[in-house]
Amino acid sequence: MKTNAFVLIFISLLALPETKGHQGLMATLFVQKSAEFYSNSIGIYNSAMEKLPALVEDKNYTAALEQNSGFSGKPPAVILDIDQTVLDNIAYQARLIENGRYYPDGWDAWCMEEKAYYIPGVEQFLALATSLGVEVFFVTNRTANLEEATRNNLEKLGFSFSTKLDQLLMKGEKPEWTSDKTSRRQLIADDYRIVMMIGDNFGDFVSLDVNRSSTEQRNDAAKAYNEMWGHSWFMLANPTYGDWESAFINFDYGIPRSKQLEMKLDVLDQQR
Ligand SMILES: [Mg+2]
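^ Those are the sequences you sent over. The predicted structure of the assembly is below.
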């Protein structure tokens, strides 16, 4: 009897979720609680607002790699990612830690609550874009089943969608709208001159094959666009997740978590 009780306690301890030592703790605290994250985010959007008017004026400029010619007469548009670029889901990350879980556990349910706040600075940016007559497009890898909830969330925050065009382009909404955002940028480029792009993941700017490459290749590719960063491409800091992290595990999310941790430890560099 006594032994059985011990065995039961032992088994239930093993089954405890990984709350202690959750890999997301530090990054989540940074985004949710630090003055440093707030300042960084506001700074990025302040810079974007400073740059926007001149980019709108310069009809010979496009910020999209997908746009090569015939764009000078088209009306201007900006493309923003949604998660950790426009909407702040850090409360969802906090829940994962509290419950010892990892994405995508509970993700759809969180989105359906429609209660994410704006990332600091984005509200002012959206207002400026609208006042300059710039069309706003959201290109997100939230899945199509979350479109209504996402729209409602943004409307609750005060964003007003056009009744004439689809500004919210979800993954899977059309068969060709895959995780690669290229086809959606191309579609927007058909009718608009893309003057600026804002995201928190390299894939918000470049194609999937560049984004989903090794850490070294991603860094080399980022360096090839030095003239874009802080000019017409603006990257928000997201230390909680992203393809920067997936690159350490070769984009194979099926690898057991303990092995993933090992792979991350393996790439730490003690020399530089
Ligand atoms: Mg994002």
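The CA atoms of residues 75 and 172 lie 26 Å apart. The chain has one domain: 19-267.

Shout if you want it in another format.
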